[in-house]
Amino acid sequence: MSAKESNEAIESQPVTKPAGAGYIRLIILLLASLFLISVLIEVFLAGMASLVNATHWKDHTTFVHFFEMLPVGIFVLSFVAKIGGAVRWLSLTLVGFIGLQYITVNLVDTIPMLAAMHPVFAIVLFWLSIVMVKKSFVVWRHGLHHHRT
Predict the structure, then answer these.
(1) Burial class (CB in 10 A: 0-12, 13-18, 19+), 71
(2) Is the dihedral of CA 112, 114, 116, 122 positive or negative?
(3) Which residues, including other chains, have CB under 8 Å from residue 82's CB and lie 6 or more apart?
(4) Nearest CA-CA partner of 77 in 36, 28, 35, 7
(5) How does pLDDT run across 96-140, given as a tens digit for each residue?
(6) DSSP-derived secondary structure for the chain
(7) Rounded Cα distance, 28 and 87, in Å
(8) C-alpha to C-alpha distance for 45 and 103, rounded to whole angstroms
(9) Model pTM?
């Protein structure tokens, strides 16, 4: 058997799904959806603080702690469910942008021009969250292991 035939034989074999993978994929979808909703709430709280009453800044700075670890959970669960590709790496990207949010907000006194990126990164977080929900839905619905689109 040639190397090409051997590779084709391996690729034609079905991939074994881990037990409960469908449930884990559903949990990933739910976590991604919860993160998206949380980002919207966080933006709303910033709007309340900016436009209604500055006392809402405390709500804005506190609320993030309730959802900031969701992408880490998605990342870990992607290994359990053997999901690679977009879902796994988007979760890490979300973690990175949350980190950028902490960095930029703390630059207000030293580098205000860079601190002004804070709301821009919030928009990016929102957009990436939408993409994450869509990718998670496809992976859950179709049971894909290494969804790359």
Answers:
(1) buried
(2) negative
(3) 15, 17, 18, 21, 145
(4) 28
(5) 999 999 999 999 999 999 999 999 999 999 999 999 999 999 999
(6) --HHHHHHHHHHSPPPPPTTHHHHHHHHHHHHHHHHHHHHHHHHHHHHHHHT-GGGHHHHHHHGGGTTTHHHHHHHHHHHTT--THHHHHHHHHHHHHHHHHHHHTTTTT-HHHHTTHHHHHHHHHHHHHHHHHHHHHHHHHT-SS---
(7) 9
(8) 19
(9) 0.83
Per-residue model confidence as pLDDT tens digits over 23-74: 999 999 999 999 999 999 999 999 999 999 999 999 999 999 999 999 999 9
